[in-house]
Amino acid sequence: MDVADLKVFEAVARHGSMNKAATELHTVQSNVTARIRSLEREVGIALFNRNVRGVSLTPAGHRMLPYAARLAKLVAEAKLAAMDEGSPNGTLALGTLETTAALRLSPFLSQFARRYSQVRLSLTTGTSCSLTADVAECRLDGAFVAGPVDHPDLYCETIFHEELVLVTPRTMRSIESLRSVKELKTIVYRLGCSYRVRLESLLSDMGIVTATPLEFGSLDAIVACVAAGIGITLLPRGVVSSAAEQDLVTIHTIAPDKAHVETLFIRRQDAYVSSAMQAFVEVARSGNGALMAAA
Length: 295
Hints:
Blueprint: H1 3-15, H2 18-24, H3 29-43, E1 48-51, E2 54-57, H4 59-83, E3 90-96, H5 98-115, E4 119-125, H6 128-136, E5 142-146, E6 154-169, E7 187-188, H7 194-205, E8 214-215, H8 219-227, E9 233-236, H9 237-245, E10 249-253, H10 256-259, E11 260-268, H11 275-294
Parallel strand pairs: 3-4, 3-5, 7-8
Antiparallel strand pairs: 1-2, 5-11, 6-9, 6-10, 6-11
Helix pairs in contact: 1-2, 1-3, 1-4, 2-3, 5-11
């Protein structure tokens, strides 16, 4: 088993297709197929289920995938460490909550881009659950997630503090009025969103039974649905303050133990901390200080 075989394995697993993996790796499908078969013979068990639409990981393949990703990341980090001289450069693959991107990131991302133009920064959004998994499994170099995070392989640093508020249609002027709503709907992100979990806990503590949640993938869609009177949600105050000022929605303060949430920046404990990563975290810290001073 060598790193090249594991790189092929990881690409096939990610794409679910021998052909797409071959395109990414700039080779032919027959070469990819041969490498996967050779790897399966070496480990002594099938790693993929084959079907007419492509391939999918077997249980053994699922168990092996994190190790392949970590080895590929280790090789890339070895090269990065050797070349990490002078001004910060290279690539940074980062993730963030959509609410954090909307509320916090723009000022210091633009500052970082101006100051460190040689760093190629990519940013993807997701839930706290999915982003944590992506960092732990080496698909991302780091991510902003909602705390707390308890993972033995991850380093966590608090960057922002948020106040969550209950967001309802503008006609609902008190939290108590929610009790009279039959089949109350919640408007939330997909499973894995920590704000969704907190909302469910809050309503459960109030003895409020809700209907099946409506899931959306964007912040704008969630706020628009609440404004239209479809349901309620839980979001950082800063994200919805403008909509509340326009009397599109009503925001309700909740108990501090439910409202306070830390936004953490996470990365793997064992990862090489490049000069680009160090520079990014420093800008994030200074940007947080500036935001707090302006608040």
